[in-house]
């Protein structure tokens, strides 16, 4: 028993600190921390057993749990949420609005996903896997989501398509955009952009990101058998995605640190909370799920439903009132996530 408890403690500590190791520096380092939830549960089980046996070794699982306590907070939350109104932010990987599916049915019919986004009346919307088609009114996302000019908007194309169509990222805002920029893109699927918004008396910077994907074909994510049959390829693809994300998130974090304004960073991070990606951003910004969410916040709408890979991070100058994962919205392979922030710090004396 002594050797088992000591081994579990040692492995747990190594895992807990593993999120600080860049996958660029140590191959496959980014794959190991996904075992953190398992070892947290194992330490809780050992603690109960050792207490029942009245063994002094119980101090080791207690120590492990205390060291790894921050990972409990990124896994599940019980925050009290507010019903107050405020600055509403939504991030949504829209999965190209299921473009091909709806186009095959009837190119003249407007998909319900556009109507749903319009009905949310959200102040700031960040969309990943955004697809714009200027040639078809029923697929003109900028016009439909932007409510015919009610929203200001900025887009980043990461892949030009035939004619007047493009794929990429978009930010829609009820507040004026006074500046915008692109951080990076891989000219395929992923990228990062920002806009500076004039919100009453203040300016905030809003980032919308879609980091390197897990590089696993969608059909494999729809069934466990597909993952098992291709496990070697899946393993390599996962590691390649993790390494690429590490480079992206290092650049992103440096850009956020140099922002002249309070920042909100949202998007599809394609990585779990037990990762170098998550904690690199978490070291400079707060996470809305952790401070204002409830439950587990799972955001992936496929067979691996237990993944929380979409996030809204924010500057400590802002105060979140609530955070929700909208799991009833089933248009995409991701669920939308939404946060509401206290608007009063951004309202000057003349607005009160």
Automatic annotation (TrEMBL):
It comes from the Bacteria. The chain crosses the membrane at residues 31-53, 58-78. Residues 90-334 form the Endonuclease/exonuclease/phosphatase domain. GO terms for cellular component: membrane. Keywords: Endonuclease, Hydrolase, Membrane, Nuclease, Transmembrane, Transmembrane helix. GO terms for molecular function: endonuclease activity. The keyword Membrane applies. GO terms for biological process: GPI anchor biosynthetic process. This is Endonuclease.
């Amino acid at each position: 028993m002594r050797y088992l408890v000591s081994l579990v403690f040692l492995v747990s500590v190594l895992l807990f600190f593993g999120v600080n190791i860049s996958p660029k520096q140590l191959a496959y380092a980014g794959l190991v921390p996904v075992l953190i939830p398992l070892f947290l549960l194992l330490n809780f089980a050992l603690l109960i057993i050792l207490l029942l046996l009245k063994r002094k070794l119980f101090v080791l699982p207690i120590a492990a749990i205390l060291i790894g306590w921050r990972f409990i907070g990124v896994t599940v939350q019980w925050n009290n949420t507010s019903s107050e109104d405020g600055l509403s932010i939504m991030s949504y990987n829209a999965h190209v609005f299921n473009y091909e599916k709806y186009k095959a049915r009837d190119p003249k019919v407007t998909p319900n996903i556009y109507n749903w986004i319009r009905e949310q009346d959200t102040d700031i919307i960040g969309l990943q896997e955004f697809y714009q088609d200027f040639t078809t009114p029923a697929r003109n996302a900028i016009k439909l989501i932007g409510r015919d000019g009610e929203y200001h908007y900025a887009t980043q194309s990461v892949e030009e398509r035939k004619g007047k169509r493009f794929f990429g990222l978009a930010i829609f805002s009820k507040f004026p955009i006074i500046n915008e920029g692109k951080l990076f893109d891989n000219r395929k699927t992923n990228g990062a952009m920002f806009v500076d918004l004039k919100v009453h008396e203040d300016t905030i910077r809003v980032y919308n990101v879609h980091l390197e994907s897990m590089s696993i074909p969608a059909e494999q994510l729809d069934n466990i058998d597909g993952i098992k049959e291709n496990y070697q390829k899946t393993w390599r693809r996962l590691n390649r995605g993790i390494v690429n994300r590490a480079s992206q998130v290092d650049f992103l974090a440096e850009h956020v640190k140099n922002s002249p304004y309070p920042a909100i960073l949202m998007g599809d991070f394609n990585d779990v909370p037990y990762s170098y990606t998550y904690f690199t951003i978490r070291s400079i910004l707060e996470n809305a799920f952790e401070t204002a969410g409830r439950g587990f916040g799972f955001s992936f709408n496929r067979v691996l439903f237990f993944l929380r890979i979409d996030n809204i991070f924010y500057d400590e100058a802002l105060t979140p009132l609530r955070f929700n994962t909208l799991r009833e919205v089933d248009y995409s392979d991701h669920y939308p996530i939404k946060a509401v922030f206290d608007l009063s710090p951004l309202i000057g004396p003349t607005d009160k």
